[in-house]
Amino acid sequence: MDVGHRLARNMKALRKAKGWSQEELGDRAAGMHRTYISQLERVIKTPSIIAVDRIALALGVSNGELLD
Questions:
Q1: Which CA distances in Å does 35 have to 26, 40, 64?
Q2: pTM (2 d.p.)
């Protein structure tokens, strides 16, 4: 599985475990739009390392955990 698919899988699982919508994760991750979060979870977009860092921080995990 490539890194984009691992990110998508982990991001979605962590978000759902917290009971958050895509919109809520986007809001917590420095104002990212819900559609961008959706595109990341469907591996349509590739995030920058800064975006990965913001998402990991919002989810309370390290970048490594998010990408592993």
A1: 9, 9, 24
A2: 0.92
What are the start-end ranges of the H helices in 18-62? 22-28, 34-41, 49-59
Q: Which residue's structure tokens are 């592993």? A: 68
Instruction: Give per-residue pLDDT as tens, 3-47.
Output: 999 999 999 999 999 999 999 999 998 899 999 999 999 999 999
Written as six digits, the tokens of 19 are 């009971």
What the block records as the tokens of 61 is 């995990």
Domains, the chain, with CATH or none: 3-67 (1.10.260.40)
Place of tokens 């959706």: 38
Q: Which residues contact 59 (CB under 8 A, 6 or more apart)?
A: 11, 14, 15, 18, 25, 66
**Gap between the Cα atoms of 49 and 16, Å rounded:** 22
